[in-house]
Amino acid sequence: MRMESLNKIRKTILEYDTMRNKKYHVVGDVFHVLVGAILSQRTRDENTDRAAKKLFSVVSSPEEIVKMGVNRLQKLIKPSGFYRQKAKNLKKMCKVLVEEYHGKVPRNRENLLKLPGVGFKTADIVMLYGFGVSTIPVDVHVDVVSKRLGLVDKNAKYEETRKTLEARFDKDMVSVNSGMVEFGQKICLTAHPKCYMCTLVKICKYEKKNLVPPKKPGIYSSSSNLN
Predict the structure, then answer these.
(1) Domain-embedded: residue 97
(2) What is the per-residue pLDDT across 196-226, written as a single tens digit (0 to 9) for each?
(3) Which of 28, 29, 61, 124 lies at a CB distance of 3.0 to 4.6 Å from 137, suitable for a disulfide?
(4) Among 128, 134, 164, 167, residue whose Cα is nearest residue 147
């Protein structure tokens, strides 16, 4: 990729980072980040936030979640969706943290991946937003945006995508990750991208560009009864 194109992409992504609600990408308490990442699986930011607030108004440590009844835990995190499976994973994960790590979240990515309910994306969220390690969690938005823009190969798997993006964006990883998510949610939508309003449309490699903006209903629209 030409440096000119990469710089334009970086500039656009960082602009979208400034639009994102900062509460969703502040580096903070590692245990809270880990639990929040698990709650965020297969749901929206708003639902994650509601569930996390309810849970952390009651508990603050792995030990407290281990002692909590599963029914109460499910009720607290219900806004996040898939709450039964998430409660099961949280109980198992916290038990491992207490028994094997003295209640602390392991800083090692390999050990994070051994925790119940923790996959590549969740581990990398913890590494970036919990420990401040320079990496990029690859969620659906990051994956779609990076492949459409030609930052990574369109057939790249998670680890290849992560490593390639880390090499292309060697700093400001929190802002880059946040900006790519915001850009994916606002412009580069998975199903119906708004290519007609994208400043990167000439760089984009996506073959099915949506270049026609939707028609605004007017007084003489086809749905009007003119008879």
Answers:
(1) yes
(2) 999 999 999 999 999 999 887 654 444 333 3
(3) 124
(4) 164
Query: Are 84 and 41 members of one domain?
Result: yes
- What is the rounded CA–CA span in Å between residue 88 and residue 201? 43
Query: What DSSP string runs through 119-171?
Result: -HHHHHHIIIIIT--S-----HHHHHHHHHTTSS-TT--HHHHHHHHHHHS-S
- Domain span at residue 81 reads 28-130
Long-range pairs of 33-37 with CB within 8 A, sequence gap ≥ 24: 33/125, 33/126, 33/129, 33/130, 34/93, 34/105, 34/112, 34/118, 34/122, 34/126, 34/130, 35/90, 37/118, 37/121, 37/122, 37/125, 37/126
pTM above 0.90, yes or no: no
